[in-house]
Amino acid sequence: PAFEVFFAERQRVTLYDDALPALRWLSERYPLVAISNGNADLERTGVARWFRAGFSARAFGSGKPHAPIFRAAAASVGLLPRDVLHVGDDAALDVAGALDAGMQAAWLVRDERPWEAGARPQLIVPNLHALCMALDGR
After folding, report:
1. What is the reported pLDDT for 11?
2. Hey, what domains does the chain have and what are their CATH numbers?
3. Which cofactor does it need (predicted)?
């Protein structure tokens, strides 16, 4: 029962204001796949409709930053890792993990921290609107 209560609470998420417009815009142009080390479920959080697939570390057996989950995500939509841009807010788990798996990476950094890790991501954005603008060439 304790885990069920914990799991239910993890499904109560508050999205940033730019999340739904960005998911809508991105999903009209790209196949989106979610990779999560957390417990939130795409269906229960209400965002599943924008994703073609979702991978949780718990169900997959390993998570970010390990390459297999990134490669499985790419394969799930018929892409090679080099043709994928992984977007995430954690320098080690998201950016380094994606780069190590052969993907491109975008670092979403809402608090204006400077990049201090190893290999730089191809893109650094302050919010999802800026990500959409960058991908749209603006």
Report:
1. 56
2. 2-135 (3.40.50.1000)
3. Mg(2+)
